[in-house]
Amino acid sequence: MSDTKSDSLGPAPAQDQPIGELREYLARAYGLPPGYTVERVVRHGGRLGTALVVHIRAPGGVKNLVIRYEEERHCRSAASLRAKAVADTDGLTRGQLITDKWALSVYEALCALADVYERMDVEGQTWEWVQELYSRGQAITGLTLDAAAVDARYQALKTLKDYPYSRTTVQNPDVTRDGKVIRSVPPIFVDREDKTCWVTARHLHVFVKYDLGADVVEDTVFSRILEIGGKRRRIEQWNRGRTDKPRLVLFKLPTPAADDDPDAQDESVAEAEKAAE
Questions:
Q1: Is the pTM here over 0.70, yes or no?
Q2: Chain-centroid distance, C-alpha 125
Q3: Which H or E element spans position 139?
Q4: What are the residues facing 181 on neighbouring strands?
Q5: Is the Cβ–Cβ distance between 241 and 150 less than 8 Å?
Q6: How far is CA 185 from CA 1, 161, 189, 203, 238, in A?
Q7: CA–CA separation, 68 and 75 (whole Å)
Q8: What are phi and psi of 21, to 5 degrees?
């Protein structure tokens, strides 16, 4: 067990302790406000020269945060542990407890939590991508992909094509005049006719690779979504004046336990639509 004194972090919980203890230790180390949780850690290669990404889940209504250490060696120094956390969370963290004495203990806790997620099966991890997308995405509603509704179908494709979400907007978000970071979120299209949820191939890849920090190539992302029940469609549509014709590859998002729970899709759609309010 870790030292519970307010002025000392103490050693990290043993790896065989409950995941909750590791998360509590890291939340305390980073000085996270109440309601924020270190949800998971991803090690990209597991070596000192490869990246380590810390995913922080925020309380309801607040966007989740990501701390990305470009090299794991930076997680062994108190100064770099704290500095990168402050920079990537816009000053949310307060890491006074991360000192030179306890920096390696924090690194141990990060690696221990990452090991838990590295053991997750591929299908389980893919479902996690989809659930995170439903949770974080911005719903696009009121339109349809029905070929009979020419105007609505064109507007749906045009909206998705022009939506400002990319590697650049994720890694270099806009900042307001008063210094507030405007975080970019992926769009989820909710068809008004059948309530199915769709995401473009480009937005899906950006979300998994740059928002979630998964070290996977584009084709792997797509094939794994198809393996858990997603559908792929290539759609194009002229506007009325035949001056513009958006072409997109879209993925229909699967819904968790849809075969066993008839309410599963309704719950996933409701979660996506809530983001549009």
A1: no
A2: 12
A3: strand 138-140
A4: 175
A5: no
A6: 38, 14, 13, 9, 27
A7: 10
A8: -70, -40
